[in-house]
Structure formats: structure tokens, C-alpha cells
Amino acid sequence: MTAPPVFRFAPSPNGELHLGHALSALVGADMAKRFGGRFLVRIEDIDTRRCRPEYIKHILEDLAWLGIQWEEPVLRQSEQFPVYIEAARQLEATGVLYPCYATRTEIAAAGRGGEGVDPDGVPLYPGRDKVLSACEAARRRSSGAPFALRLDMARALDLAGSVLKGRPLTFIELDAQGTPREVPAEPARWGDAIIVRKDVPASYHLAVVVDDARQGVSHVTRGLDLYPATGLHRLLQVLLGLPEPVYHHHRLVTDERGRKLAKSAHDTSLRSLRSQGWTLQRVREWLGLDRSFG
Ligand code: GLU
Questions:
Q1: How far is it, in rounded angstroms, from Cα 245 to Cα 211?
Q2: Residue 175, phi then psi, degrees to nearest 5
Q3: Which atom of ligand 1 is nearest to the CA of 24?
Q4: Does any ligand 1 atom lie closer than 6 A to the CB of residue 208?
Q5: Is the pTM for the entire model greater than 0.90?
Q6: Exposed site from 43, 48, 67, 167, fewest CB < 10 Å?
Q7: Among 129-138, 151-160, 233-242, 272-281, where is mean pLDDT lowest?
Q8: Alpha carbon distance 91, 86 (integer Å)
Q9: Is 10 in the pocket of ligand 1 (CB under 6 A)?
Q10: What integer best gives the mean pLDDT of the chain?
């Protein structure tokens, strides 16, 4: 017998869930049901300054209201830092990470030459030696200054190329009917991405690939806004020797001006809709979820 597929919904408790999150959670839960799979909820709270415990409570209440059932215990990323540190050590041992002491202001100033921005709109890091002189970096290192760990993208791609024996880096995307298609992963768009932040011993990208693997997640369902991140996640999976999940990136819920819903938009928060008398059926209809997932 083959193991059932594993799906997950992985919200960050830095605000109330809104209709966009409802779509994401329901798409994952519906797909899990359809595929006879398991469904997990993971709390992505590595950003300890922005995440708040009361939001975790609200998230779980909202998910229960959406009729979603998940397995216990719910993993909280803020409790897993040693695991991310170990994964970062593993990457570091392959020579693809380097410490970066530069501040945001210094990076922005150095990047005025026009390196462009990453898919999150953050200016691309101009390169290992282009922001601080070797001498200044050494001075900061010996003074014990905090540092981030960045991926040396060129080296990482080289190493992945040899692991994959020249096969291209790709991932499997399922469409809304569940039909798979192999698509190119384009991690280079992220430049020398931060893998371990200065303030916490992880980053979204590192934590997500480590946890998807540890939790045996076989199907990652999430919004199209995270499509570019999947390329970087595939690269990290290859470098860390982790299994490859399949992906489904669902459409985004937008407001009347076509912008992605924000966590600050209280009028579409699930809590507020619930108090206005919305029912699960109304949410599903509003999201157009009666026919197929996503
Ligand atoms: N924690 C992320 C968010 O709330 C989602 C991560 C993922 O699904 O990979 O946007």
C-alpha cells in the first residue's frame, strides 16, 4: 500500500485570515479530500516580532469555522529553530552560503547601479564583495556584528547541476484538475537570497523546505504569489537532498481594484465576516468553490 498524500496550509500569524486565506485553506483541504490525503496546519511564525499568539488562536478558530479538519499537533516554526540551524550548517558545509554583514541601507546604496529587484520587489544583492570591502567585513566579523547567511547563487546552481547530472532544475505543477506538468524552476531570479536572517536563525525559504520535508508534505498548495519562490525551494531541496513535493499554485483573491487582499483589510477578515452572519456556504460561493479546487 502506498502512503496517502500529505497536504498542508501554512499561515503566518501576523494578522487575521481573510478570504484569500480561506481560498488557500479550502483549496488544500478539498484537494486532500479528493486525493484521499492527510491535511496539516503549520504555523509559520519565525518572524517573532510580527507574529502574535492571539492570531494563532484566531486562525485555528477560522479554520474550524471553514469546516476544515487537520491533524494534531500543529507545528509552530518558532519552536523549530535548532532544526533550521542544522539545515543551514548542512548547506554551509557545501560552500554555498556566505555571511553578509551589510545593512539594508548599505545594500540599497550599493545597488543603485541597477541590479533590479527579486520577485518580492526587494533590491537584488549586488554580490559578495560589492557592498562592503573585505577589510570592513573582517572588522565587523571580529567585532561580533550580526550577520545574515546568503546563498551564493552561482555556486548553488553549479552544485545543483552536478547533483542533477546536468538535468534541468524543474518542478511539477498540478493544474486545477490535478493534471501534472513539468515547469522550469528559476531560482536565479532571487540572486544571492537570504537563507538565514540576521534576527532569527532561519528564513521563510529555509524553514518551508525543511518543514515540508520533515512533515512528509507531498502536495504543496498555495497562492500564485508564491510561484517564483517555488524555484528557489526546489534548488534548496536539491542542495539539501530533500524529497520533491508536487505543487499547485491557485489563483489569488483580489479586491475591487484588482489588488491582492491584505491582512490589514479588516472588512474581508473571516472573523469580521462571521460576525456579520456569513456562513461557510456563502464563503464557498463567493470564492467560486463549488465546482473544482483552485
Ligand atoms: N506562510 C506563508 C504565508 O502566510 C505561506 C507559505 C507557504 O504556503 O509556503 O504567506
A1: 12
A2: -85, -175
A3: 8
A4: yes
A5: yes
A6: 167
A7: 129-138
A8: 9
A9: yes
A10: 93
